[in-house]
Amino acid sequence: MAMGTWSASSRVSPLILRSISRNPRSLCSQAEPPTKPVLDSDSPPQNLYSSSDVSNETSPEPHLPEIAIPGCKDCVLTQADVISSLLSRRNDPDSALQYFKWAERRRGLVRSIDSMCILLHILTKEPRTRRQAQYLLNQFASGDYSGPTPCTVVDHLMQCPESFSLERDSLVFDYLLNSYVRAGRLDGAVDCLNSMVGHGVFPSVPFVNIVLSELVKSGMIREADNVYYKMVANGMEGDGVTVKVMMRGCLKEGRDVEAMEFFVKAKEKGIGLDAVAYSICIQAVCRKPDAKLACELLSEMKIKGWVPSEGTFTTVIAACMKLGNMAEALRLKDEMVSCGMSVNVVVFTSLIKGYCKLGQYDSALDLFYRMGESGVPPNRVTYSILIDWSCKCGNVSKACELYGQMKKKSIRPSVFTFNSLLQGLLKKCALEEANKLFDEAIEDGIADVSTYNCLLSFFCSEGKVDEAQHLWEKMLSKGVKPTIVSYNNVILGYCRAGDLDNACSALSQLQDSGFKPNVITYTILIDGYFKKGDPESAFKMFDQMLIENILPSDYTYNCLITGMCKASRTSEAQVRLRKFSEEKGFAPSVLTYNTVMDGFVKEGDVNSALAVYREMRESGLYPNVVTYSTLINGLCKSNNFDLALKMWHDVKSKGFHLDVTLHSTLIDGFCKKGDMESAWQFFSELLEAGLSPNTVVYNSMISGFRNLDNLVAALKLYKRMQADGVPCDLQTYTTLVDGFLKAGELVSATDLYTEMLAKGFVPDIVTYGVLINGLCNKGQMDNAQKKLEEMDRKGITPNVLIYNTLIAGHFREGNLQEAFRLHNEMLDRGLVPDDTTYDMLVSGKVKGQRSTSTAGASTAVKM
């Protein structure tokens, strides 16, 4: 039945309506139609609780045999005629419908919403013709949207029964509401419902549920909320379907607590909740996540005889993993299997991630292999998690293997996967492989600014400014817009290279690009200025940061304190620390106090270091191994070995792990004291503890024996060091060369020096000082002078001690002219002579002066 344009404005006048009401036939200009045909009865829709019946398609018109209605074809049929005839058939719905259809086809009929509303009330009166009413409304709702508004239709449906003495059935309002939903006119359905409520009529719960369900599906959550609360305000509690729909709506908007409240209140009111309602509630609970409550709800489901779905099990297992409850997650996995379900990829992936987060990387890999054996193919998330954690655990080769598997299976990696693997390769300094992967990410169109930032961060942290600049230009050429992280990396690169001018230029570029420097930006610059030895500029940068209302972080405060301590301004650092704590709310950590203690120790003020230690303890912080190592080092330097040993035993009694560093501190202290017996005792204790001496420990021991002229013991330690695979460094060779030169074992000294050069070690000023001193003591002034010239070629400026050694050597040899020439050269270099220099120049003598004959008897040694 085609529906034309309906007009609410063509409503019949009240006077005519009263006439029709008194005499329905008075305005009927047509003969009565034949007797009505026998129709099959129709029933209302069965599954009104389900929104699945709601579609935008209109169901076929119920079959109704055509009947002829005789009359004059030339007569004009008025609205009053149609209404009068319909009212005369109010007890014969089939006949009324046939007449309405016949009247529709008559030329000149002015359609009226009144006639439709009268017919709807007549049709809904009997169950067998209700489906005809539904069809009529479906056609109307899906027709011309310029027709009567939903509110107008409701108004007419409300007024017709009173005007024409008809019985009003609430079903007609349910059908109207449902028709707007079926036609996809959800705004119309809401307007319709609001108008009904305004007239004191509320649709039945099943039809309201249909509206709520479609609103939630369409993302109109707020509209659904309004409908629900109007429903409650009118004394309608709703049912289990209502609760489920509203819970879903809450979950869509992330209102998990509200979803849980709907569930709890429904239980309290005794509203029937099924397995689906429990599953939705479990989903809300797991988002918190509250795995314990989720498991309790699962247990309730089982008590009620319901088997949780695979999705419900999966959700709870994931929640358990987020909280690190591996045991419960594995139990649920076994329970899931016992219910006849297969472990799916989501469960496997959740368990793999759980093992990784617990530090059980090998267990995660084992589960990954079992996943493959079970026939469950890993997805992109599975690979992404394992690649990320493989890199974090230092197993970059496994990460590359997994990445290769992804490519073979045509699983497209995410940018997160690329970045994880890229960072892993960079951490291993596998730059060639990293660049290859980076180019691949660009080719595949996956790389974004975060990918560029990974490589940029590596170059800048390594001080490779040229490489960083090239990458920056490439990023801009690809149309990738830098972020503040990008700019911060560049600023860091310049700071690491000591180029603070360009670092500040990068800061200006950052601001010109519309970014505002953040706490990281300023902290990088503050640290850069301190490392360059410019604390005043560092404090200016800190003040600028405060002016711009950027709150310093703990790292910022620690940078300031560390910088001052390294600049030998530890007392000022301590004052600043107290000020930051009292005025800025900075909470110093053990690391902060350790830094200040170390500063005082390096300045030789061990008493102040101990005072800081007491202050730290009073603040409620407990010392760590670094604290004790710093203090023991300071006590040893101040020759307070009794207190150092007392502190050592105190550390042992507290159960601290006595690491190599702590042993090394005492060993070095006793070595410098010349107490090699105590030093050896601690060296042996270190070995007994299962620790391996490092280069620092061996160097201390070798230096200690060298100072006692015990070259046999020193050389024995050197050979043991090589046998144990502990790398020698420049200090190791310099100490031994010095020892052999002082002992007059020139051949051994030469052999060690040659070995040092062969291993790629470049002599520093200390090494040259040892060589020149040794050569001068043996009267080999020409070779000593060559070493001085060699220093010039390598850009190493000699110090006053080296010049004093050469000047003394020439005095011993009687070469006064060369001695004074060296003095002038020293002045030309801007070096200030010390008392030893002037003593030699004035008296012409040096301690231990040898005779000319002894010098002539020396054997020439080339180094």
Automatic annotation (TrEMBL):
Keyword Transmembrane: no
Alphabetically ordered keywords of this record: Repeat
Signal sequence annotation: none
Region (Disordered): 26-63
Family statement: Belongs to the PPR family. P subfamily.
Domain of life: Eukaryota
Species: Linum trigynum
SUPFAM superfamilies (UniProt xref): HCP-like, TPR-like
Polar residues bias locations: 43-59
PPR repeats: 169-203, 239-273, 274-308, 309-343, 344-378, 379-413, 448-482, 483-517, 518-552, 553-588, 589-623, 624-658, 659-693, 694-728, 729-763, 764-798, 799-833
InterPro entries the UniProt entry points to: PPR-containing_protein, PPR_rpt, TPR-like_helical_dom_sf
PROSITE patterns, per the entry: PPR (PS51375)
Keyword check for Repeat: yes
Protein name: Pentatricopeptide repeat-containing protein
Gene3D superfamilies reported in the protein's UniProt record: Tetratricopeptide repeat domain
Pfam families: PPR, PPR_2
